[in-house]
């Protein structure tokens, strides 16, 4: 709970939190006190959780809640903030002033204003920017906005032929904060003009617009069940080039890298267009940026590398990069079980196609890594790949290692 970091030091110094500053539900210092229709005050997160679990009564009075509107108790919140300031010497930090949740009436008015084609440009743009600010503030705000058919309104603005490009990119920035349903994904992916537009936006002068376009492309691909539709999207001109360029751009920051990797992975799931990823320079870019990625993104990047290693051109491109094999060997058992599995799979593909890759792998210490992997708690799939790779590399092992390797049953291979 948010108040935990404050309560613990209070207990240590023996400082008592005033009773009326504590939430009756959590018994912790309130950060966003709100008053319900019975007159009782609770911390917003606590009373919202109470109601969300199906309770319809006031926790203190047990009276029925005839109205589920929570009124901010600004006076009490300011008193709590003053008390925090007065006790800073005890290590108490002032609670920040909470941002108020979006008002449904205001959200409806903003959506109406944004979608009014006959309205002047500036009010429409201002409405979209207000919506973007609200959506960024909290999950609750996004839920309120989404409940007013916002996704449909935003899709229309993004792809409107008559709208200003500035309106389109602003609507796009809001739209990517929501998960689209299947019909919405199909309405975008099945329209070649919409796909071409998103592909073109991957080369926009603003890096944010490019990232948002890649995000929507990934959202649509992930939300579409039709293999034909996914193939149609991934076959759009320059779509791979645009996504790869986001990853290649040295100015790309964590969000750009995360979305770039997600979009590239979604595109590479379409087998018949993987060669386009290779042509766009994806292999070298993935290897060059792998060290910059966090755990989850690195897993997805390694999964993409394994996918591209399944086609001859991808295998050749990765084998030609001096860092590919050493990086994959180093990755084993270092990031996660999934990452290990993908790295082992990619190494298996590379070493099956190239004796040079076999020698590189052995020089990089793959033997030790694979033997450790076989004995580890990693997935059975990863272990099977490791066993197959050990068998494949048997002729490349240093002679003094062969005698020590017979205990790992490399001949008992189960196809994966």
From TrEMBL:
Enzyme Commission no: 2.3.2.27
Domain U-box: 16-90
Keyword Zinc-finger belongs to the record: no
Entry-linked CDD domains: RING-Ubox_PUB (cd16664)
Alphabetical list of Gene3D superfamilies matching this protein: Leucine-rich Repeat Variant, Zinc/RING finger domain, C3HC4 (zinc finger)
Keyword Transferase: yes
Gene Ontology biological process terms in this record: protein ubiquitination
Catalytic activity field: S-ubiquitinyl-[E2 ubiquitin-conjugating enzyme]-L-cysteine + [acceptor protein]-L-lysine = [E2 ubiquitin-conjugating enzyme]-L-cysteine + N(6)-ubiquitinyl-[acceptor protein]-L-lysine
EC supergroup of this enzyme: transferase
Record PROSITE patterns: U_BOX
Molecular function, one GO term: ubiquitin protein ligase activity
Pathway: Protein modification; protein ubiquitination
Function: Functions as an E3 ubiquitin ligase.
Protein name (record): U-box domain-containing protein
């Amino acid at each position: 709970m948010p108040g935990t970091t404050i309560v613990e030091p209070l207990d240590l110094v023996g400082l008592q939190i005033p009773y009326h500053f504590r939430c009756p539900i959590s018994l912790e210092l309130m950060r966003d006190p709100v008053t319900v229709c019975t007159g009782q005050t609770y911390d917003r997160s606590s009373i919202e959780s109470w109601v969300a679990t199906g309770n319809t009564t006031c926790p203190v009075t047990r009276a029925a809640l005839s109205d589920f509107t929570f009124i901010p108790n600004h006076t009490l919140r300011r008193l709590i903030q003053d008390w925090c300031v007065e006790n800073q010497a005890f290590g108490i930090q002032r609670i920040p002033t909470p941002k108020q949740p979006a008002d449904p009436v205001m959200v409806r008015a903003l959506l109406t204003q944004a979608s009014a084609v006959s309205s002047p440009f500036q009010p429409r743009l201002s409405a979209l920017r207000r919506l973007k600010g609200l959506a960024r503030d909290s999950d609750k705000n996004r839920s309120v906005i989404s409940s007013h058919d916002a996704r449909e309104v935003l899709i229309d603005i993004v792809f409107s032929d008559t709208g200003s490009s500035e309106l389109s990119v602003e609507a796009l920035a809001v739209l990517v904060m929501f998960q689209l349903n299947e019909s919405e994904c199909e309405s975008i992916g099945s329209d070649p003009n919409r796909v071409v537009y998103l592909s073109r936006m991957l080369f926009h002068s603003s890096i944010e617009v490019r990232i948002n376009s890649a995000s929507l492309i990934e959202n649509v691909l992930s939300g579409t069940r039709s293999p034909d539709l996914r193939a149609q999207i991934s076959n759009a001109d320059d779509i791979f080039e645009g996504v790869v360029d986001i990853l290649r751009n040295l100015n790309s920051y964590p969000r750009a890298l995360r979305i770039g990797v997600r979009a590239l992975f979604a595109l590479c799931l379409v087998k018949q267009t993987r060669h386009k990823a290779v042509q766009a320079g994806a292999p070298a870019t993935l290897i060059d940026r792998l060290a910059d990625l966090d755990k989850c993104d690195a897993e997805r990047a390694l999964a993409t590398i394994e996918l591209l290693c399944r086609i001859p051109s991808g295998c050749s491109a990765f084998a030609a990069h001096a860092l590919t094999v050493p990086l994959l060997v180093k990755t084993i058992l270092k990031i996660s079980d999934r990452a290990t599995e993908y790295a082992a799979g990619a190494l298996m593909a590379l070493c099956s196609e190239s004796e040079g890759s076999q020698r590189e792998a052995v020089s990089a210490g793959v033997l030790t890594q694979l033997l450790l992997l076989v004995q580890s708690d990693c997935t059975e799939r990863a272990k099977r790949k490791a066993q197959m790779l050990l068998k494949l590399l048997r002729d490349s092992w240093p002679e003094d290692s062969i005698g020590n390797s017979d205990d790992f049953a490399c001949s008992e291979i189960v196809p994966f």
